[in-house]
Amino acid sequence: MPVKKDEVREGRIADEAIVDAYGPEEQIMGWYYYLDDKIQSFTGKCLNSDSFVG
Is the pTM of this model over 0.70? Predict the structure, then answer.
């Protein structure tokens, strides 16, 4: 089931990620470092090898 998108929350996340960015290159780097800080490593298991792309 898809999760309902919360525009206010999305805006807060974007503001935090690109707070001091001036231009597209700095915005990209802002997102890179934001996600690098927030996303943790995890182990996954492929449930359907027919749909694996790699």
Answer: no
